[in-house]
């Protein structure tokens, strides 16, 4: 007796991407690769699984990601502590150190793929989601910070997005953050009565994140807290000013947001986010900034770096409004046939069409013409090629336009000799 099997479902917050949607992903990915190539960025791929300490060290012990969102486990076979990457940056920096990539020159690199965070799922927030991650490793100047942001402006244009705006801040250097930190802790200690439990817990470990609170009761306190921006010295301010000037030169608008601190600990100087009001609560489409200390922190020779990551699900959601990222049809030509000889001829001709670069589906099986036409229509093909007994006998094929309006009630159709078929198809598709 077979035991009944309880259906297995996808995990909460982890989505299946089915063919109709997946073709939009492919279109977006192709656009993104061409956009990145135009700026000299090259692809690199790092493992999904890394040692847990890479992320605790890299992202920071007292961050939401490390404290409560990582998928970590102990490998039962060798007791190693492992984590599914919650972001790309730490892994890409590890790889660049491990392979001495920064020994002789800087690198512009990117990666795309799934990342994992155990968050409460809602629209735009998933447990497995995808990032397009771009890193400029080994570059110190504000020119590259600006280039990355300008580059993003170009992508939004290519994708036809207008409802997206830039928020910008500078987190200064370590010594400036230390001076601000002492002032901030003192301020928070004076306002203990309005702090919630999480804020009290973080007050001494990550006081900057306390200001990032969504708690309405803490907004006044957060608004009046000492601002890191006011602790920046001349060099940090000059770096920031240069970024701002270059953005203005390029016609990129931005809003200075002194409260923008980002959720990962590795940043210094420039940080930025691109946000939209179109996606509800999860409106940050892209975030990034400079992280000059991370390479050294992870054991490499000190080298500056800057980068960003785009959330692909959020970007596609936004593109759904602009209509620029569409799915191509399943095929261009759908071949319909009747009878054994026509079926074999269909398979042969379809191979020739593919030699000519056409995307072709040959109807599988031997159903009647009517249901084959229905399938042809559903495939999105612009043309059907019809091979019946008459066509086989006369070495010809009929071509039917599937997308153009019928002329005087008659769908447009034409019969051509087989030796002219390829030429006609290439003209008509
Ligand atoms: P992040 O801000 O943590 O930065 O994530 C980047 C983007 O990923 C967000 O702006 C958002 O669009 C998307 N995202 C984040 N969490 C989720 C989620 N649960 N579901 C769906 N989308 C999400 C980083 O990851 C840094 N590594 C960026 C970076 C690269 N900084 C320098 N280089």
TrEMBL record:
GO terms for molecular function: ATP binding; histidine-tRNA ligase activity. The keyword Oxidoreductase does not apply. InterPro entries: aa-tRNA-synth_II, aa-tRNA-synth_II/BPL/LPL, Anticodon-bd, Anticodon-bd_dom_sf, His-tRNA-ligase, HisRS-like_core, HisRS/HisZ, HisRS_anticodon. Belongs to the class-II aminoacyl-tRNA synthetase family. It is found in: Cytoplasm. GO terms for cellular component: cytoplasm. Homodimer. SUPFAM superfamilies: Class II aaRS ABD-related, Class II aaRS and biotin synthetases. This is Histidine--tRNA ligase. The keyword Cell wall biogenesis/degradation does not apply. One of its GO terms (biological process) is histidyl-tRNA aminoacylation. The lineage of its organism: Bacteria, Pseudomonadati, Pseudomonadota, Betaproteobacteria, Burkholderiales. It catalyses: tRNA(His) + L-histidine + ATP = L-histidyl-tRNA(His) + AMP + diphosphate + H(+). PANTHER family: HISTIDINE--TRNA LIGASE, MITOCHONDRIAL-RELATED, HISTIDYL-TRNA SYNTHETASE. Pfam families: HGTP_anticodon, tRNA-synt_His. Keywords: Aminoacyl-tRNA synthetase, ATP-binding, Cytoplasm, Ligase, Nucleotide-binding, Protein biosynthesis.
